[in-house]
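Lab meeting, item 3. Inverse folding demo.
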């Protein structure tokens, strides 16, 4: 069974409730944008009138920011600055003329989100990652050539006869000197 797709508000990153004014938004950002764009009664404009994005309606909106337009419009902070919240609404593609889209199919919603994610991925270059650590090449030894108890001298002598890769011999000689490992079974003294 597939899990339902959860959309995040493109303005404040809360859970989106639908596609409003041309973007996936929560109810709060939808209402804020609708109230902010709604012409006041003295403007002589009707609510259903179509406007272009930079037309007379948006030019009459008077908002100011106390922080120079650098406020964080995320989650609970979204109500702290109307100017920055409105600018973020415009930046994500919300526009008053998009209010009459009507209901949208799930295909439209998913394809819109995928398109937005693809645009974001292409606009942000991938971070420089460190190259993976280069490990020394393992010494190729057939499993039947390893005795259970092996000394260091016997290991290097035996290895020289079973080598397939000529470069591996020089790498094997720079291995750190270690003590032999006794893997034989002995009776435990109690």
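The presenter then showed the designed sequence:
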């Amino acid at each position: 069974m597939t899990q339902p797709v959860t959309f995040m508000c493109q303005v404040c990153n809360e859970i989106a409730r639908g596609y409003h004014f041309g973007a996936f938004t929560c109810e709060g950002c939808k209402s804020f944008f609708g109230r902010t764009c709604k012409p006041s009664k003295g403007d002589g404009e009707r609510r259903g009138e179509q406007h272009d994005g930079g037309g007379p309606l948006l030019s009459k909106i008077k908002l100011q920011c106390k922080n120079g337009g650098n406020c964080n419009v995320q989650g609970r902070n979204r109500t702290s600055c109307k100017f920055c919240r409105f600018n973020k609404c415009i930046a994500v593609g919300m526009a008053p003329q998009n209010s009459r889209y009507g209901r949208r199919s799930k295909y439209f919603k998913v394809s819109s989100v995928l398109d937005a994610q693809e645009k974001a991925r292409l606009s942000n270059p991938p971070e420089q990652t460190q190259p993976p650590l280069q490990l020394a090449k393992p010494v190729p030894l057939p499993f039947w050539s390893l005795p259970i108890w092996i000394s260091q001298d016997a290991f290097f002598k035996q290895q020289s006869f079973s080598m397939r890769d000529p470069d591996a011999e020089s790498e094997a000689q720079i291995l750190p000197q270690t003590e032999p490992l006794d893997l034989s079974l002995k009776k435990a003294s109690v």
